Amino acid sequence: MPACPVCDTEYDQGQVEDCPNCGWLLKISPDAEELTLNLSREEVSKLVELVRQMWGKIPKEASPENLPQFDSQTEQFKNFSQQIEQLNTKLEGLSQDKSPLQSELEELNKRLLVVEEKLSGFTVINEQFKNLKAQMVQFNQQRQQIQSEREQFKQDRIMLKTIIQEFQKNVQNWERNYQSNPDRKPRSPDRKPSSEHQSAQEASELVLSDQEKQLVTNYNNNPALFLHLAQEVSETEDSISQRRSTGQEIVLGKRNRGNYWILNIGGFDYLVPNQTFKINEFNYKTLEALFICQKYQPEGSRDFKLLKPARVSQVSTENTWHLNEKGILKF
User: Fold this and answer.
1) Residue 19 contacts by C-beta under 8 Å, 6 or more apart in sequence?
2) 291/305 Cα distance (integer angstroms)
3) Which residues pair with 262 in a beta bridge?
4) Same domain as 284, residue 249
5) Could you report the per-residue pLDDT of 237-291, keeping only the tens digit for each?
6) Which residues are CB-contacts of 240 (< 8 A; sequence separation ≥ 6)?
7) Could you tell me the residue range of the domain that residue 152 belongs to?
8) Is residue 236 predicted with pLDDT exceeding 80?
9) Does the residue 107 lie in any domain?
10) Structurally, how many domains does the chain consist of?
11) Residues 289/290/294/299 CA torsion (nearest 10 deg)
12) Is the same domain home to 285 and 237?
C-alpha cells in the first residue's frame, strides 16, 4: 500500500485525499504522476522533506516538559496546513480557469492562421506592385514623348504665326500702295519689277503648293524667320567621294555651320541654302546636285533667289537625308 510522504502512514489509494495521521494532501508527492502547484519534482521533494522534518519534531505524547514545544510546533503545523489549503484552493481555481485559457489559446491560433494566409497573399501583391511600377515607367516615357511633341507643335505654331503675320504685313503694304496710287499705270515691259514681286511671280509660274509658296516668299524676304526651325546640314565626306567616283546619289548629314537648312513644315522636309551660304568653286558642285541653278555664271553675280525648295527624306533613324526632288534657284 502507498504511504504518506510525510509520516509514512499507509493509506488506501483512491479512498482518501488527506493523510489520516498528519493531514498532508496526499496528491502533493514527488512520486505523483501529475505534479501540482506548478512545482517541479525537485521542489516537491524539498517541500515534503521540510514537512517530514517538522513532523519528526512533533512529540508523539504530550507531557508537562514538552507541552510548550508541542503547542509551538502544533501552531506552526496549523499555519503550514492553512498555507497548503490556500495553495490547494489556488490550484483548484487554476484548474477551473484552464478551460477559458484553452479557448483563448485556440482563438489565438485561429487568428495566427488568418495572419499567415494574409502574409502568403503579400507575394501576389508584390508582383502586382512590380507590374504597376513597370506600367508607370512606360506611362512616364509616353508622357515625355507627348510633351516633346507638344513643344514641337508649339514651335511650328509660332513659326506659322510668324509667316501669317509677315504675309498679312505684305498684303497691308500692297493695299496701302494701291490706295495711294489707284490710277497708276502698269509698269513698262522693260522696267525691272521689285525683287518681292518678281519672286512671287516666278514662284506662281511653278507648280508649288500653298505651303511651298509661303516658304519661298518668307525665305526671299527674311530667311532669319526660319532660324529657330532649321537643322544645319552639309554633304557628307563619303557622299562627296562616292558621288564623284560612282555617281551615287547625294547624302546630307547634320553639321554645325552647315551650308544648307532642313525645314520640317507640314510634315515635309524641305531643303534651302543657309542664309550665310556663299557660293565658291568648291561647293558649287554640291549646290548643282541639289538645285537647278538658272542663269548661273561662274564669273557673274553669286546672289540668287529661291524659286522652289528641294525635297529630302530622312534615312530611318539616322541623322542623314537623301534627295527626293531638286529645288530651283535663279541668279
Assistant:
1) 4, 6, 7, 9, 11, 26
2) 12
3) 231, 271
4) yes
5) 988 888 877 878 899 999 988 999 999 998 899 999 999 999 988 899 999 999 9
6) 286
7) 118-172
8) yes
9) no
10) 3
11) -60
12) yes
